[in-house]
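Sequence in, structure out.
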Amino acid sequence: MLLSDFDYELPEELIAQTPIEPRNASRLMVLDPLNETIEHHHFFELKQFLTEGDTLIFNDTRVIPARLIGHRETGGRVEVFLLRRIDGKHWETLVKPGKKAQIGNKIIFSEELSCEIVSHTDFGGRIVKFQFNGIFEEILDRLGETPLPPYIHEKLEDSERYQTVYNRERGSAAAPTAGLHFTKEQMSDLKDSGINLGFVTLHVGLGTFRPVNVDNIEEHVMHEEYFSIPQETADLIRRTKENHKRVVAVGTTSIRTLESAFVDGELKAISGATNIFIYPGYKFKVVDAIITNFHLPKSTLIMLISAFAGREFILRAYAEAVKERYRFFSFGDAMLLTRRPAH
Protein backbone atom coordinates (compact mmCIF):
# COMPACT_ATOMS: atom_id res chain seq x y z
CA MET A 1 0.00 0.00 0.00
CA LEU A 2 1.46 3.33 -1.09
CA LEU A 3 1.79 6.58 0.78
CA SER A 4 0.17 8.39 -2.15
CA ASP A 5 -3.00 6.32 -1.56
CA PHE A 6 -3.71 8.52 1.47
CA ASP A 7 -3.23 11.92 -0.11
CA TYR A 8 -5.96 14.51 -0.69
CA GLU A 9 -6.27 18.15 -1.75
CA LEU A 10 -6.87 20.66 1.04
CA PRO A 11 -7.15 24.43 0.54
CA GLU A 12 -4.92 26.12 3.12
CA GLU A 13 -7.72 28.42 4.28
CA LEU A 14 -9.58 25.39 5.69
CA ILE A 15 -6.83 24.71 8.25
CA ALA A 16 -8.33 26.01 11.50
CA GLN A 17 -6.06 28.57 13.13
CA THR A 18 -8.05 29.23 16.30
CA PRO A 19 -10.38 27.14 18.47
CA ILE A 20 -14.12 27.72 18.21
CA GLU A 21 -16.22 28.88 21.16
CA PRO A 22 -17.83 27.14 22.89
CA ARG A 23 -15.84 23.97 22.39
CA ASN A 24 -18.79 21.86 21.27
CA ALA A 25 -20.04 24.39 18.69
CA SER A 26 -17.80 22.72 16.11
CA ARG A 27 -19.37 20.78 13.27
CA LEU A 28 -19.70 17.01 13.37
CA MET A 29 -19.66 14.88 10.23
CA VAL A 30 -21.41 11.60 11.01
CA LEU A 31 -20.25 8.66 8.92
CA ASP A 32 -21.82 5.23 8.76
CA PRO A 33 -19.08 3.10 7.15
CA LEU A 34 -21.41 0.10 6.93
CA ASN A 35 -23.96 1.86 4.70
CA GLU A 36 -21.48 4.52 3.46
CA THR A 37 -23.72 7.43 4.43
CA ILE A 38 -22.58 10.96 5.38
CA GLU A 39 -24.58 13.39 7.53
CA HIS A 40 -23.78 16.91 8.71
CA HIS A 41 -24.41 17.93 12.32
CA HIS A 42 -22.83 19.82 15.23
CA PHE A 43 -20.82 18.38 18.09
CA PHE A 44 -23.39 19.40 20.70
CA GLU A 45 -25.76 16.92 18.98
CA LEU A 46 -23.45 13.97 19.73
CA LYS A 47 -25.83 12.42 22.28
CA GLN A 48 -28.42 11.54 19.65
CA PHE A 49 -25.95 9.14 18.04
CA LEU A 50 -25.18 7.30 21.28
CA THR A 51 -27.34 4.83 23.18
CA GLU A 52 -27.62 4.11 26.89
CA GLY A 53 -24.84 1.73 27.90
CA ASP A 54 -22.37 2.87 25.25
CA THR A 55 -18.94 3.75 26.64
CA LEU A 56 -16.83 6.74 25.62
CA ILE A 57 -13.10 6.27 26.19
CA PHE A 58 -11.03 9.46 26.67
CA ASN A 59 -7.26 9.97 26.73
CA ASP A 60 -6.64 12.01 29.90
CA THR A 61 -3.08 13.10 29.07
CA ARG A 62 -2.05 16.72 29.61
CA VAL A 63 0.23 18.63 27.25
CA ILE A 64 3.40 19.85 28.93
CA PRO A 65 5.18 23.10 27.94
CA ALA A 66 7.51 20.95 25.87
CA ARG A 67 9.33 23.63 23.82
CA LEU A 68 12.41 25.15 25.46
CA ILE A 69 14.49 27.90 23.88
CA GLY A 70 18.11 28.16 24.95
CA HIS A 71 21.59 28.76 23.62
CA ARG A 72 24.83 26.88 23.30
CA GLU A 73 27.80 27.95 25.36
CA THR A 74 29.16 29.54 22.19
CA GLY A 75 26.00 31.63 21.88
CA GLY A 76 23.96 30.00 19.09
CA ARG A 77 20.18 29.74 19.60
CA VAL A 78 18.84 26.22 20.18
CA GLU A 79 15.32 24.82 20.47
CA VAL A 80 14.79 21.67 22.53
CA PHE A 81 11.47 19.86 22.12
CA LEU A 82 10.67 17.35 24.88
CA LEU A 83 9.25 14.06 23.62
CA ARG A 84 9.48 11.49 26.41
CA ARG A 85 10.79 11.38 29.94
CA ILE A 86 13.20 8.52 30.53
CA ASP A 87 13.96 9.14 34.21
CA GLY A 88 14.33 12.03 36.64
CA LYS A 89 16.91 13.89 34.54
CA HIS A 90 17.02 12.23 31.12
CA TRP A 91 14.62 13.06 28.28
CA GLU A 92 14.26 12.04 24.68
CA THR A 93 14.10 15.23 22.63
CA LEU A 94 14.27 16.84 19.22
CA VAL A 95 16.91 19.56 18.95
CA LYS A 96 17.11 22.31 16.32
CA PRO A 97 19.50 22.94 14.71
CA GLY A 98 20.37 19.27 14.96
CA LYS A 99 23.69 19.43 13.13
CA LYS A 100 25.21 21.49 15.91
CA ALA A 101 23.69 19.41 18.69
CA GLN A 102 26.47 16.90 19.25
CA ILE A 103 27.28 14.65 22.19
CA GLY A 104 28.82 16.64 25.03
CA ASN A 105 27.30 19.97 23.94
CA LYS A 106 25.70 21.98 26.72
CA ILE A 107 22.53 24.03 26.22
CA ILE A 108 21.64 26.79 28.67
CA PHE A 109 18.04 27.91 29.21
CA SER A 110 18.42 30.00 32.36
CA GLU A 111 20.49 30.21 35.52
CA GLU A 112 18.39 27.38 36.96
CA LEU A 113 18.13 25.05 33.95
CA SER A 114 20.56 23.57 31.41
CA CYS A 115 21.10 20.25 29.67
CA GLU A 116 23.86 18.21 28.09
CA ILE A 117 23.44 16.05 24.99
CA VAL A 118 24.43 12.50 25.92
CA SER A 119 23.44 10.40 22.88
CA HIS A 120 21.64 10.23 19.53
CA THR A 121 18.41 8.30 18.87
CA ASP A 122 17.40 6.12 15.94
CA PHE A 123 14.85 8.74 14.90
CA GLY A 124 17.19 11.69 14.60
CA GLY A 125 16.57 12.96 18.09
CA ARG A 126 18.80 13.42 21.12
CA ILE A 127 18.88 12.06 24.65
CA VAL A 128 19.67 14.95 27.00
CA LYS A 129 20.47 15.12 30.69
CA PHE A 130 19.02 18.12 32.52
CA GLN A 131 20.69 19.99 35.34
CA PHE A 132 18.41 22.18 37.41
CA ASN A 133 18.06 23.98 40.72
CA GLY A 134 14.63 23.32 42.19
CA ILE A 135 11.66 21.26 40.99
CA PHE A 136 11.91 20.42 37.30
CA GLU A 137 8.16 20.62 36.59
CA GLU A 138 7.90 24.08 38.16
CA ILE A 139 10.89 25.34 36.16
CA LEU A 140 9.43 23.86 32.97
CA ASP A 141 6.11 25.60 33.61
CA ARG A 142 7.95 28.91 33.85
CA LEU A 143 10.38 28.53 30.95
CA GLY A 144 8.66 26.16 28.54
CA GLU A 145 6.15 26.97 25.83
CA THR A 146 3.08 24.94 24.92
CA PRO A 147 3.92 23.51 21.50
CA LEU A 148 1.35 24.13 18.79
CA PRO A 149 1.48 22.25 15.47
CA PRO A 150 3.50 24.00 12.73
CA TYR A 151 0.40 24.59 10.58
CA ILE A 152 -1.10 26.88 13.27
CA HIS A 153 0.24 30.40 12.75
CA GLU A 154 -2.10 32.36 15.01
CA LYS A 155 -1.10 33.04 18.61
CA LEU A 156 -3.20 31.08 21.11
CA GLU A 157 -4.50 33.54 23.71
CA ASP A 158 -5.44 30.87 26.26
CA SER A 159 -3.09 27.89 26.43
CA GLU A 160 -5.80 25.83 28.17
CA ARG A 161 -7.70 25.73 24.88
CA TYR A 162 -5.02 23.31 23.68
CA GLN A 163 -5.89 21.06 26.63
CA THR A 164 -8.94 18.85 27.08
CA VAL A 165 -11.26 19.74 29.97
CA TYR A 166 -10.62 16.29 31.49
CA ASN A 167 -6.79 16.25 31.35
CA ARG A 168 -4.95 15.04 34.44
CA GLU A 169 -1.77 13.09 33.53
CA ARG A 170 1.15 15.33 32.47
CA GLY A 171 3.37 14.06 29.69
CA SER A 172 2.24 14.85 26.13
CA ALA A 173 4.07 16.83 23.49
CA ALA A 174 0.79 17.40 21.62
CA ALA A 175 -2.91 17.39 22.50
CA PRO A 176 -5.28 14.48 21.83
CA THR A 177 -7.31 16.88 19.72
CA ALA A 178 -10.54 14.90 19.28
CA GLY A 179 -11.19 15.54 22.95
CA LEU A 180 -10.94 19.32 22.58
CA HIS A 181 -14.59 19.42 21.47
CA PHE A 182 -16.00 18.24 24.81
CA THR A 183 -17.22 20.62 27.51
CA LYS A 184 -17.61 19.58 31.14
CA GLU A 185 -21.34 20.25 30.84
CA GLN A 186 -21.69 17.98 27.81
CA MET A 187 -19.77 15.18 29.52
CA SER A 188 -22.01 15.51 32.59
CA ASP A 189 -25.11 15.40 30.39
CA LEU A 190 -23.88 12.28 28.60
CA LYS A 191 -23.22 10.57 31.91
CA ASP A 192 -26.68 11.51 33.20
CA SER A 193 -28.12 9.97 30.02
CA GLY A 194 -26.59 6.58 30.77
CA ILE A 195 -23.45 6.93 28.65
CA ASN A 196 -20.38 5.55 30.42
CA LEU A 197 -17.20 7.64 30.56
CA GLY A 198 -13.88 5.82 30.84
CA PHE A 199 -10.29 7.06 30.81
CA VAL A 200 -6.96 5.81 29.52
CA THR A 201 -3.60 7.54 29.11
CA LEU A 202 -1.33 7.79 26.10
CA HIS A 203 1.35 10.47 26.19
CA VAL A 204 1.47 11.83 22.66
CA GLY A 205 4.99 11.89 21.30
CA LEU A 206 6.88 11.39 18.08
CA GLY A 207 4.92 8.28 17.16
CA THR A 208 1.69 10.23 16.67
CA PHE A 209 2.96 13.17 14.63
CA ARG A 210 6.13 11.91 12.94
CA PRO A 211 5.61 12.03 9.14
CA VAL A 212 5.77 8.92 6.99
CA ASN A 213 8.89 9.07 4.83
CA VAL A 214 8.60 5.77 2.93
CA ASP A 215 6.59 5.07 -0.23
CA ASN A 216 5.47 1.64 1.00
CA ILE A 217 3.62 2.41 4.24
CA GLU A 218 4.23 -1.08 5.61
CA GLU A 219 7.90 -0.12 5.97
CA HIS A 220 7.05 2.76 8.33
CA VAL A 221 8.07 2.20 11.97
CA MET A 222 6.13 3.98 14.69
CA HIS A 223 7.97 5.55 17.60
CA GLU A 224 7.15 4.20 21.05
CA GLU A 225 4.76 6.12 23.28
CA TYR A 226 3.79 5.46 26.90
CA PHE A 227 0.25 4.23 27.59
CA SER A 228 -1.75 3.00 30.55
CA ILE A 229 -5.18 1.46 31.13
CA PRO A 230 -6.47 1.30 34.72
CA GLN A 231 -8.37 -1.75 35.98
CA GLU A 232 -11.52 0.35 36.35
CA THR A 233 -11.53 1.16 32.63
CA ALA A 234 -10.75 -2.42 31.60
CA ASP A 235 -13.68 -3.64 33.70
CA LEU A 236 -15.97 -0.98 32.23
CA ILE A 237 -15.10 -2.03 28.68
CA ARG A 238 -15.64 -5.70 29.52
CA ARG A 239 -19.13 -4.93 30.90
CA THR A 240 -19.92 -2.81 27.83
CA LYS A 241 -19.05 -5.69 25.53
CA GLU A 242 -21.02 -8.18 27.63
CA ASN A 243 -24.07 -5.91 27.32
CA HIS A 244 -23.60 -5.74 23.53
CA LYS A 245 -23.03 -1.98 23.64
CA ARG A 246 -20.37 0.04 21.81
CA VAL A 247 -16.92 1.15 22.89
CA VAL A 248 -16.52 4.61 21.35
CA ALA A 249 -12.90 5.78 21.24
CA VAL A 250 -12.38 9.53 21.49
CA GLY A 251 -9.39 10.15 19.26
CA THR A 252 -6.74 8.06 17.57
CA THR A 253 -4.60 7.94 20.72
CA SER A 254 -7.45 6.26 22.61
CA ILE A 255 -7.81 3.77 19.74
CA ARG A 256 -4.11 2.91 19.78
CA THR A 257 -4.19 2.53 23.57
CA LEU A 258 -7.18 0.20 23.57
CA GLU A 259 -5.93 -1.94 20.72
CA SER A 260 -2.45 -2.16 22.30
CA ALA A 261 -3.96 -3.48 25.53
CA PHE A 262 -5.80 -6.37 23.88
CA VAL A 263 -3.62 -9.29 24.89
CA ASP A 264 -4.35 -13.04 24.75
CA GLY A 265 -7.92 -12.49 23.64
CA GLU A 266 -8.94 -9.87 26.19
CA LEU A 267 -8.43 -6.24 27.14
CA LYS A 268 -6.06 -5.98 30.10
CA ALA A 269 -5.26 -3.28 32.62
CA ILE A 270 -1.63 -2.70 31.68
CA SER A 271 0.88 0.07 31.12
CA GLY A 272 3.97 0.24 28.97
CA ALA A 273 5.19 1.43 25.60
CA THR A 274 3.39 0.94 22.30
CA ASN A 275 4.49 1.41 18.73
CA ILE A 276 1.31 -0.04 17.23
CA PHE A 277 0.76 1.09 13.63
CA ILE A 278 -2.81 0.65 12.40
CA TYR A 279 -3.43 0.81 8.66
CA PRO A 280 -5.90 -0.88 6.24
CA GLY A 281 -6.00 -4.61 6.77
CA TYR A 282 -5.88 -4.30 10.56
CA LYS A 283 -8.58 -6.21 12.48
CA PHE A 284 -10.01 -4.10 15.30
CA LYS A 285 -10.47 -5.97 18.55
CA VAL A 286 -11.90 -3.42 21.00
CA VAL A 287 -13.11 -0.25 19.28
CA ASP A 288 -16.65 -0.16 17.85
CA ALA A 289 -17.00 3.54 16.96
CA ILE A 290 -14.70 6.55 16.72
CA ILE A 291 -14.80 10.29 17.37
CA THR A 292 -11.90 11.98 15.60
CA ASN A 293 -10.74 15.15 13.87
CA PHE A 294 -9.79 15.57 10.20
CA HIS A 295 -6.17 14.51 9.76
CA LEU A 296 -3.22 15.56 7.63
CA PRO A 297 -2.78 14.02 4.17
CA LYS A 298 -0.49 10.98 4.11
CA SER A 299 -0.40 10.78 7.94
CA THR A 300 -0.54 7.62 10.05
CA LEU A 301 -3.78 8.99 11.51
CA ILE A 302 -5.70 9.04 8.23
CA MET A 303 -4.35 5.53 7.64
CA LEU A 304 -5.78 4.46 11.01
CA ILE A 305 -9.30 5.70 10.33
CA SER A 306 -9.08 4.26 6.81
CA ALA A 307 -8.42 0.90 8.44
CA PHE A 308 -11.66 1.33 10.40
CA ALA A 309 -13.98 2.69 7.73
CA GLY A 310 -12.35 1.92 4.38
CA ARG A 311 -9.88 4.10 2.50
CA GLU A 312 -12.11 5.03 -0.42
CA PHE A 313 -15.04 5.96 1.84
CA ILE A 314 -12.80 8.10 4.07
CA LEU A 315 -11.31 9.94 1.10
CA ARG A 316 -14.82 10.54 -0.24
CA ALA A 317 -15.86 11.93 3.15
CA TYR A 318 -12.80 14.20 3.22
CA ALA A 319 -13.69 15.50 -0.26
CA GLU A 320 -17.20 16.20 1.03
CA ALA A 321 -15.73 18.01 4.04
CA VAL A 322 -13.65 20.24 1.75
CA LYS A 323 -16.71 20.95 -0.39
CA GLU A 324 -18.78 21.84 2.72
CA ARG A 325 -15.99 24.01 4.11
CA TYR A 326 -15.32 22.05 7.27
CA ARG A 327 -12.41 23.23 9.44
CA PHE A 328 -9.43 20.86 9.48
CA PHE A 329 -6.78 19.57 11.91
CA SER A 330 -6.21 20.33 15.61
CA PHE A 331 -8.65 23.21 16.12
CA GLY A 332 -10.98 22.02 13.38
CA ASP A 333 -14.24 20.10 13.22
CA ALA A 334 -14.90 16.47 14.14
CA MET A 335 -16.28 13.31 12.65
CA LEU A 336 -18.09 10.37 14.21
CA LEU A 337 -17.59 6.95 12.64
CA THR A 338 -20.61 5.10 13.96
CA ARG A 339 -19.81 1.46 13.24
CA ARG A 340 -17.25 -0.42 11.23
CA PRO A 341 -18.02 -2.74 8.33
CA ALA A 342 -17.25 -6.44 8.68
CA HIS A 343 -13.78 -7.32 7.39
